[in-house]
Amino acid sequence: MQVTETLNEGLKRGYNIVVSAAELDDKVNEKLVEAQPEVEMKGFRKGKVPMALLKKQFGQRLLGEAMQESIDGAMNQHFEDSGERPALQPQVKMTNEDWKEGDDVHVEMSYEALPAIPEVDLKSVELEKLVVKADDAAVEEALGNLAETAQDFKSRRKGSKAKDGDQIVFDFVGKVDGEEFEGGSAEDYPLVLGSNSFIPGFEEQLVGVKAEEEKDVNVTFPEEYGAEHLAGKDAVFTCTVKDVKEPVAAEINDELATKFGAEDLEALKGQISERLEAEYSGASRAVMKRALLDALDVKVSFDLPPSLVDAEAKQIAHQLWHEENPEVEGHDHEEIEPTDEHNKLAERRVRLGLLLAELGQKAEVEVTDAEMTQAIMNQARQYPGQERQFFEFVQQNAQMQQQLRAPIFEDKVIDYIVELAQVADKEVSKDDLQKAVEALEEE
Fold it and tell me: What is the CATH number of domain 2-112?
């Protein structure tokens, strides 16, 4: 077998591979010898079929396998000897298209090699970690928000008009064409105006009603309404208002705490404090991660495989286009041409991706089965009732597994780098941390 280099320009590589007819013949014979003991053929005992007959019967089929194995073997041997890794699957094509049995096989292989990644002194990386404490004011603010979500309602002064957000307690009887219909009546029904609990146009007509007032509400059921016999029909609901109540926040006390699963108010405050600090810590990590990637981007420089940059730029352009055109759900639109900005961002992502992969490999960073299982379970929650099918889909889909594994691997590599870097804590306010996070989103 002969392998001849035809291109070595930057990261681009090209080779001609020649597999001789004799090599192919030898490989076919090897396969026949290996299979002979198990072959049965009419007129011969098992394992006693002559080689010449075996070759006539199976040689043509085995020739294709031998050819593929020889080419794959030559490629693998080349990568093992050269130490190079292709950025994408190498392009391989047979150049003597008029090949016939007994001829040598000529193959052309081309690819872009992954670049050599320079060493980075991770201990020289300087980072700042924003630290925010969950102070009493933040805990009290969170408590107030919880109290609002657990709001109660109390009766307004007699004669007060119902406002949007108020709760009315009323009886109603619905009729279509003068006839009552099933499910169209209720007594002492509590309805928060503006909650959109009823069909469109219903609640708006009850804004301004008073206790002990009777009012007819005229509406039209939507064309796509679930009950076919009501869809598109005009209806009149005779409503008798019994009470008008205004919303009031729940009192901040032990009773409120028990509503949220805590033993008492102090225990609830402790839970809130822990939750807030976990949120602050997560936001702080996101800010520090961006700063780390910025620092690494400055520290390293190496050639990038054009094919990877091009693919990443197209992906970025495509994603941003869909974000700007959310009404387009499919992908059968015209190709989105990447801009210089997209290409610049793609170069950064590819460079940092290759660097993190190299650092992770050298540090023997691995994603455990338990971490993958947890990631799959988290993703499966987005498909309630179909968790099992999603789990099975991921198990059978290598690409989906890689999509779930990649961010876990990246985060673990980031953690590894942070452990080696010089990290200085800096106490800041919650507002300062929020501004830092917003700055990330604007970039």
Answer: 3.30.70.1050
